[in-house]
Amino acid sequence: MGLRKERIDRGIKARSEDIFAVTSYREMLYLIAPRAVPILAAIVLSLIAPPYWQRVLISASVFGILALSWDFLQRCGMVSLGQALFFGAGAYVSGYLNHSLGWSPVITVPLGAVLGGAFCTLLLVPVLRLRGIYFSMVTLVLPLMFERIIEATKILGGTEGISGLDPFPNSWVELYLPLIAVWVALFGLRRLMGSDYGLVLSGINDNDRSVISSGINIYVLKAQALFIGASMSAFAGGIMTHIYMFVGMPVFALDYSILPIASAVVGGMGTFAGPMLGSFILVPLSELLRGIGGLRIIVYSLSLVVFIVALPEGIFHYLQRKYSQFERWKEL
């Protein structure tokens, strides 16, 4: 006689599906804990971690924003392989405004997000009609092309970049700005995709022909979604520019395109929380492996393969399932 695994929702989950059904502190804790515990953990880590690991936390937050932006775009039917384009545009706009006009990072970072997002949107509007791999290939090529243009024309500082930029007012702003930004992006995007507007964006990914047949101009909506996603990544680029007090060709490096995708795959695509969790795993893991030299890439790659093979659904989906369901073996 064979056995099969049966998964059953926990009773508290069934009752808590509707917020009005919450009748006890235990059920309230069940709903709040998954959201509050990671935030509290991030705050505690930021307070007790040594300066080096505070820098790692900043990098993880920046890559978390890039991963959230990538996940948002793929949920709107646009799979990007060029997050470095958005990141680099925001970094260069922020750096140029600070270097040329002497504006404070308080102004240049948000302006870099808006202007960088608008520039990337205008650049990609002509290819919004492309689907699947064709759109992805365009986004992959553009940051590489901008890198070569800057090198050949020597504009924006050429190969030496722009250095001597103003830092943030103090180390607390430098630490908590990216940390707060990644949480605001997470909850903001979850809220957005739960609205009627977000449902239409999801519909474009599911079946764009059906959305078009409803009389909706999907290209306007895709341009709006592209602006939101590009602005988020550009904001991350502006933050890193003022943390390093430098902007140059490395902002278009493939790292800023590949790591957000790897974070989404490891954490779990289509959840927002998964890609963010993935970035907070992969970035510290990369730093931990720095001490083994050339073997770092091999161990890092093997870790990625293990994550993908052992948990193809993503770590967040696995944790979410374990939290909301219990499993038991049942006779067939």
Would you kindly provide a written description of the structure presented here, covering whatever features stand out?
The chain has helices spanning 11-16, 25-48, 51-75, 83-101, 105-124, 132-153, 171-194, 196-213, 218-244, 255-267, 273-288, 295-310, 315-324, and strands spanning 3-9, 162-163, 246-247, 325-331. With 332 residues, it is mostly helical. The strands form 2 sheets. Strands 1-4 form a two-stranded antiparallel ribbon. The termini are close together. The model has no long low-confidence stretch (mean pLDDT 86).
Give the secondary structure arrangement, pairings included.
Elements: E1 3-9, H1 11-16, H2 25-48, H3 51-75, H4 83-101, H5 105-124, H6 132-153, E2 162-163, H7 171-194, H8 196-213, H9 218-244, E3 246-247, H10 255-267, H11 273-288, H12 295-310, H13 315-324, E4 325-331
Antiparallel strand pairs: 1-4, 2-3
Distance between the first and last residues' Cα: 7 Å
| Total beta strands | 4
Looking across the biggest beta sheet, what order are the strands in? Answer: 1-4
Structural class given helices, strands, pairing?
A: mainly alpha
| Rg, Cα atoms, Å | 21 Å
Mean pLDDT across every amino acid position = 86
Which consecutive residue ranges, at least 5 long each, have pLDDT under 50?
none
The number of distinct helices, counting runs of at least 4 residues, comes to 13
Fraction of residues in helices?
over 70%
Shape: globular
Beta-strand residue percentage: 5-15%
The run of helices and strands is EHHHHHHEHHHEHHHHE
Q: How many strands, what sense, and barrel or not for the largest sheet?
A: 2 strands, antiparallel
